[in-house]
């Protein structure tokens, strides 16, 4: 073997920074540094910072990112991108509505951007949508400035916004909902930038409250993080899933790649009744309910998303 020579691609931090500086010299403009834990970072070209706001609860930025369009960044993490938010929000909303068959009342925990409500308003059967988001400033920004994203959902008479901690709201109400959607930030923070704003809402106490607040045959929907087929990353999703499974007898998980999240993202459904449905019945139910104009979700998409990767097959269904 010859003499050991330095690698051209595996670099010490100082050398990596030098190489990165050299690369960026050829590009004009600004960049968004996306740090996803201690082992992965990425750079995305920024076309402009539209808003920076430090609220009582979190740091919010609205930025135009090349290839992604308008992005909402909370505490340094992309939470919404105009280019692909429909993938996430259609999967968050429509499977539960189709499985229920005729939902009339929906509670959204989080969701202050109004996009989940936008999807729910496609259903004429829905008479009431309650959004409980602790950060009133975030809701105000989207209501006043970004109507093109939520299509006016935050001003619809069927929608009511409550600026309150979701756990406190769940404790205080004495009624039930057909569907409860948890559209919250993750309870973990691999990048060590954010606090634990939502951790208490991914607890056994929260799941018990949610179960009690569902109507007979009601469905709980929970955004449950991403997977990369890497144990150190995937464990957080699996911990959420374990907690939901401990509280509900029937649990199914959908997985779909969301480019701006740079991971296979998961949406978990839970109920006191089975959650199976054929692709044909998905399409029939959407047609019966008069739902049109979806970009991603239909019977085939449902079948694919709810067919878990083999490595996760043993934990994704119950």
Which series of helices and strands comes N to C?
HEEEEEHEHEHHEHEHEHEEHHH
Q: Estimate the mean pLDDT confidence.
A: 90
Under CATH, the homologous superfamily of the largest domain reads Vaccinia Virus protein VP39
CATH architecture of the largest domain: 3-Layer(aba) Sandwich
Indicate the radius of gyration in whole angstroms.
21 Å
Helicity level, as a percent range? 25-40%
Oligomeric form of this entry?
Answer: single chain
As for the number of domains, it is 2
What is the count of β-strands? 12
CATH domain class of the largest domain:
Alpha Beta
Task: Kindly describe this structure.
The protein is built from 11 helices and 12 strands. The strands form 2 sheets. The chain has a 7-stranded mixed sheet. By secondary structure, the protein is an alpha/beta fold. The model has no long low-confidence stretch (mean pLDDT 90). β4 (69-74) and β5 form a beta hairpin. It folds into 2 domains: 27-81, Spermidine Synthase, Chain: A, domain 2 (Roll); 85-316, Rossmann fold, CATH 3.40.50. It is globular, with a radius of gyration of 21 Å.
